[in-house]
Write the structure tokens for this entry.
Amino acid sequence: MLRNPDFEKTIVKKKKYNKNKKRQVNIGGEDIEIETPSDSTSKERQPLILVDATLGGGGHSTALLEQMKPGDILIGCDVDMDALLTASQRLEKYMVFQNPFTSSSSSSSSDDNVVEKKNSSSSKDDSIPSHPIFIPVQSNFRYLHEIIPDIPHPYIIGKNLLNSENEFSVDGILMDLGVSSHQIDSADRGFAFLKDGPLDMRMSGTSSNSEKSSLMTLTAADLCNELDERELIRILKTYGDEPRARQITQAIIQSRPLYTTNDLHMAVSKCTPEFAKKGRRMGRNATLARVFQALRIVVNEEDKALIQALEEMSPTLLCKEKSRLVILSYHSMEDRMVKRIMRDGTVDKQKRVARDYYDRDMYGNYVGEARPWVPLGKKRKATPEEIEANSRARSATLRVAERVTSSSSSD
């Protein structure tokens, strides 16, 4: 998972106050200045509400919480119960709710995202905690706009977290797409081709009760063993940009049945040299990475989930002017979607072309509906120092956009 020194600064953007002071925070070895309100105004300000939509092991959430002020709220979401368990234990000191992921006596279903407070009797409507607050939620990020509005406020009794005081909006959303380091390092999840384990790749684990999609019950082994040649070729080309898609598909079909990651590894190895003269991209490890990536995307419906998160979830939760969307993507399909949504307001290229053609006046000026986002700067790639510290950051791309409401914007 990428740890960009400027990344957490990008999403933690405080509101304006009459009196501000700057505080330096060290992230990734670099000092970052953050504007924070003076003590005299801290009780009057609205708490900052951020969403870590891809919690993983809790690395980004930890860095964000270290910068946030007392009373600020961070919602951490992940579909993977194991990731929620790890992150909740790591961030338990920031929780005012009883942790449902560390208590064996908890009998709530996977849809019960909020539990009773530890000391509800001592809570007061005007009480502000002495630290920022972390709230864990189990869900695919595509459904957060349906879940977060129903979460009760952690320290104001009788109110939901999103209310008229904060314009029913969060202040920022972070999405770190793809598979997390926590999942890659677990051999029994089937994400890593260098570790033998069941050919599973479901991000939600072996249980799909928390998912609304029936396709989430399929595993990578099911795809390899049941799909026909044409469909497997399409998957490898579309989601993996794999130049040897046909040869690899034939090797997979000839090697059926496949049950473990090692079975798939051996099938791909039959038609892929360990080292290639044309460059590292054609070597065995790079090819295996693309094949595993393509199957993982289809198993978890990552393309459909991302489209829904970009076109529905993000603009619904970020409905306040200048609230921020921060996204880390790891392959061309993801980054293309993110770029289009931030630039055009839609991931559908045909919709953008039609809108640009019909929504212009006789002089060629755009007069259509305002676009919901304004990109902040250009995309950013990991630095050589970051790649040296974390080789998985090599393919990461960071993009940031600010929300523009229709009542205050014009193209």
Summary: DSSP finds 14 helices and ten strands in the chain. The two ends are 35 Å apart (CA to CA). Residues 166 and 335 are 30 Å apart (CA to CA).
